[in-house]
């Protein structure tokens, strides 16, 4: 059974504070190990990658069946293994993700202001991006699409995928997703060593400019360490959902949505806020019922027991400030009129509106991105989009007339800041010919 | 004298590679110290801030003249000290920065696709932002405007400024800039302890959601450490300029621009690429001449000697790939037709077009932002803008008909990924009533 809170209770505020500041992740201090691995890869390149892969993944790159780079033939062979229904679903997903993300391409801008100064910017794609794909059971083909398609839409020319391959094996559906997304450069490497190779390059792997994709504590620490040398996406934490429901809901549907989140990870969090205590009660019972038949019921059960919560509120308006403090990765609005609530959402990665939009649709084929800010980071960051794969160059253009008008203020400020050469670079153009 | 390279030389490629991979910053390993300071502030709050400020900044918060928070009266008193010409210049700068950044507010989007799925997003402002302002000679009023104005334009409700105050004193022009930008919450704290206070909060300082602004190695390490708890902007490195010049230029103007960059910091870098060796020669001589009279000639001279370079190329087209590999923070196009080159720029923080746009105008009153990606990070990141202070919530909305169409593919992929509860949360809506 999950935690029950009632917003009308006297001690609600302190209990709610405790809920949102709950530390769900076991923090592992892997910094020193990771720094050592990065230094080794920078120094020894491919040889270091081979050694770490032998040690951690039991894979031998000198075996012709499992070279570091996964060849085109191997990709094709893997794709042929995958159920055609999965291929069809991935193809549909790719098409829908691509078409939605195409609307995110930001426009260039250039204009002259009232004194004739030209101001503007141009957007260009990052030239090369590394995509980290976890191994094992967290090796999700859908994540390959969600990371790669926005990069493709942005115009990234080179996408390099890395994926750890225990005993050389890679999930064939992951390779199929890569092929559908148009990725051709794939290496059988993982962990901090793969991040280091992407950031600094080796004899075989040319360095990239940005690294995206989820990973374990070592991968996260390595991304944090190379941040600045390359760009990185967010550091992903355990997943979470908040469902806001009025009384007019099927409790089984809500329970299924809560459990879909909880099954990800024992550290995942599923919260229901409802105006109807009876619905809350019914959902709680439905969760227990459904847990009995779920394939991943151990994981989902632990998450629900340790981090799940049901909160009752007097009305939907009272739910919104709580939702914004939770700042959930996923926010389901299981209410009659979701459009009335949407403008009141300040902090959330993604909104799933109405009774027929289970979050799982967004994980796969909705078209929007499933890489979203976790652990309350929706307070300051956004889900993955085309914007993560482009950068802006600003443009400024003055003629002699504009320079004459702005020069005195620029010189005043440069001198106030003690930057004489700044002042001179402006002043010199007023007193001599170009 | 700076390094001379000729693109026609046989060993050019290796010399150029060395130039762009030059490490200009002395890396200081301050991680352990910073981790300790952060833990202390988390545990001891205001008391830790008072102790560090006494130790590092020789300021006593219990002295009524120098409390931790700088009161409105103290701000007013500081503003009254500042030369009215500086106030006027800051006011003009604020107005121009605000008017330009107002164009950066990104639009919301919502549409129905061809099967009736509703897709879109809404942008909302980050609620609270911390602005770090360095102390000492690097305490620039212009930087206060460049960081605060985009946040204000974005709609950030609370901006918290922190600035270390040696013996309690803060640059009055910095306080004037804060007032002009509309910042009212200012604390006399700096270093890793200030970053920790902004990220985690203390008894006096409520935590923020994002921290921006430049700082020394301790500040940078602290920002890296709290990344994830809060958002951060880029980790700024030493500044750089690349000037691309054809033969038809006044060498004194170009020299002045190179030195305006070089005077920032001994680790700053100024590079000239020119099609005309004679101009290069003349610029080199002009630099030496101007160095004799510059107030910061020691700094500028060291930067030019250690990191400056003049590169000759056969034509302007040959300059562009080199510029994109350098990925400069500032790119001046001192050529007859800058518009012909702009589309060829792939990696640069900002372009200054034509002979009458010295970079220093952009530092102060051009209207564009002077917080730009350094150390080749223009390959993957952009200058500061309104986008850094907003975040996007995506929206997905299906009705029963759309769910029926997409459900089979979603279920297929969920099952392929071993996520049974995901599949169930979709399937259950096909078989029962909501």
UniProtKB/TrEMBL annotation, chains A, B:
NAD(+) binds at residues 132, 193, 216. Binds 1 zinc ion per subunit. It comes from the Bacteria. Pathway: Amino-acid biosynthesis; L-histidine biosynthesis; L-histidine from 5-phospho-alpha-D-ribose 1-diphosphate: step 9/9. One of its GO terms (biological process) is L-histidine biosynthetic process. Substrate binds at residues 239, 261, 264, 330, 363, 417, 422. Keywords: Amino-acid biosynthesis, Histidine biosynthesis, Metal-binding, NAD, Oxidoreductase, Zinc. PANTHER family: HISTIDINE BIOSYNTHESIS TRIFUNCTIONAL PROTEIN (PTHR21256:SF2), HISTIDINOL DEHYDROGENASE HDH (PTHR21256). NCBIfam families: hisD (TIGR00069). This is Histidinol dehydrogenase. It comes from Martelella endophytica.
């Amino acid at each position: 059974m999950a935690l029950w809170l009632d917003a009308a209770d006297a001690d609600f505020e302190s209990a709610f504070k405790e809920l949102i500041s709950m530390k769900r992740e076991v923090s592992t201090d892997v910094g020193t190990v990771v720094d050592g691995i990065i230094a080794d890869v920078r120094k020894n390149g491919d040889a270091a990658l081979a050694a770490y892969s032998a040690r951690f993944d039991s894979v031998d790159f000198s075996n012709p069946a499992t070279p570091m780079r996964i060849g085109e033939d191997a990709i094709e062979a893997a794709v042929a293994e995958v159920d055609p229904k999965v291929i069809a679903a991935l193809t549909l997903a790719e098409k829908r993700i691509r078409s939605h993300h195409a609307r995110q391409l930001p426009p260039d801008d250039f204009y002259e202001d009232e004194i004739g100064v030209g101001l503007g910017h141009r957007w260009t794609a990052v030239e090369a991006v590394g995509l980290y794909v976890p191994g094992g059971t967290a090796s999700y083909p859908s994540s390959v699409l969600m990371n790669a398609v926005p990069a493709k839409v942005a115009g990234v020319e080179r996408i390099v995928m890395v994926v750890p391959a225990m005993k050389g094996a890679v999930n064939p559906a992951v390779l199929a997703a890569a092929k559908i997304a148009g990725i051709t450069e794939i290496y059988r490497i993982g962990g901090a060593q793969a991040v280091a190779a992407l950031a600094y390059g080796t004899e075989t792997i040319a360095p990239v400019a940005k690294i995206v994709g989820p990973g374990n504590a070592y991968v996260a620490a390595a991304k944090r360490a190379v941040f600045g040398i390359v760009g990185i996406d967010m550091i992903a934490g355990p997943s979470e959902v908040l469902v806001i429901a009025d009384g007019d809901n099927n409790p089984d549907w809500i329970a299924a949505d809560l459990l879909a989140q909880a099954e990800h990870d024992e550290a995942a969090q599923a919260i229901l806020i409802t105006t109807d205590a009876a619905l809350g009660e019914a959902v709680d019972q439905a969760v227990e019922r459904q847990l009995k038949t779920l394939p991943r019921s151990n994981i989902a059960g632990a998450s629900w027991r340790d981090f799940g919560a049901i909160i009752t509120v007097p009305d939907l308006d009272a739910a919104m400030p709580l939702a914004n403090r939770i700042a959930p990765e996923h926010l389901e609005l299981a209410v009659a009129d979701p459009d009335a609530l949407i403008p009141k959402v300040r902090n959330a990665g993604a909104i799933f509106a109405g009774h027929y939009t289970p979050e799982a649709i967004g994980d796969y084929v909705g078209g929007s991105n499933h890489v979203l800010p976790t652990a309350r980071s929706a307070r300051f960051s956004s889900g993955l989009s085309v914007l993560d794969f482009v950068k802006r160059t600003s443009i400024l253009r003055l003629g002699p007339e504009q320079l004459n008008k702005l020069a005195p203020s620029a010189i005043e400020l440069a001198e106030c800041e003690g930057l004489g050469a700044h002042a001179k670079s402006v002043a010199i153009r007023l007193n001599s010919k170009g």
